[in-house]
Write a structure and sequence with these properties.
78% of the residues lie in helices and 0% in strands. It is mainly α and 67 residues long. Helix 1 (6-16) packs antiparallel against helix 2 (21-52). The protein has helices spanning 6-16, 21-52, 55-63.
Length: 67
Amino acid sequence: GPPQSSEVQALDRAIESKASNSELKTAISKVEAYRKAKQEELEKAQADLRKVLSVRQEAIATANGWL
């Protein structure tokens, strides 16, 4: 799959090193923020794509899981 983000890598290191609860919570928050930002980027890109597709093209893209 795609390479892990630095946030996920940091969380993995915190888990492996048995970091404190507060350090783990901080790392979890960073991963969640990263994922939320990526999801927002994806949704914006999908919305932008929908603007240039015909209804038929949008149907095909949706059926293929691209939208």
